[in-house]
Amino acid sequence: MSKQLFYALGPLIFDSLGVIVFALLLALDVDLIVATAAGTAVACAVVGWELLRGRPVAALQWLSLVMVLFSAGATMLTGDPRFVMAKPSIVYVVIGAAMLRRGWMNRYVAPEELPLIGDVMEKFGFVWAGMMFATAVANLVVAIAFTPWWPAFIGFFPMASKLGLFAVHFAIVQIVANRRRRMGGAVAVE
């Protein structure tokens, strides 16, 4: 089970590293420009690392990098706090839309496990997309109606909700996989 956890958690953290750095720095009251520049540098480093290793860069990594570069540029040019507060909603909607593609979660599962749990992973792909859309709406509500609470919200809720869903997702996948192994069968991935 720890092997499967590492296999799933490693790419998840790696893919989100730029956003994690940005959110942590923002939560620590680091200057917005510094937090944005640091998140951008980390997102660029993630893509660069994959390219240097000769590995394909996942669509979500490219999308994340483009969104970070675009939003970082707009933030630095405008310095407008309303743009900064709305920016995560735009990012969450774009990422949620990308997550509606079937099979995007396959890279988070060991290839030998895919025939066993591929159907469950596909369903959770849509659950993840739904969570991204819900987070986008929540961000807008907090940014507009509860502006003073926005830094605490953005520093805590997106990461906490992702970690919570990851825990539920991982537990359910492990339960289903173990049950199917005991039954001696695999489910074909469509």
Set down the secondary structure blueprint.
Elements: H1 2-15, H2 17-27, H3 32-52, H4 59-78, H5 81-98, H6 114-145, H7 150-183
Helix pairs in contact: 2-3, 2-7, 3-4, 4-5, 5-6, 6-7
Written account of the structure:
The structure is a single chain. The chain is mostly helical and 190 residues long. The protein is built from 7 helices and no strands. The chain has one domain (2-183). The protein is globular. It starts with a helix and ends in a 7-residue tail after the last helix. 24% of the residues are buried.
Distance between the termini: 25 Å
Mean pLDDT: 82
Global outline? globular
Number of helices: 7
- Helix percent reads over 70%
Largest sheet: none
What's the count of strands? 0
* Unreliable stretches covering 5 or more consecutive residues: none
Structural class of the secondary elements? mainly alpha
How many domains? The number is 1
Percent of sequence in beta strands:
under 5%
InterPro entries: YciB
Protein name: Intracellular septation protein
Transmembrane segments: 5-26, 32-52, 59-77, 83-104, 125-146, 152-173
Keywords: Cell membrane, Membrane, Transmembrane, Transmembrane helix
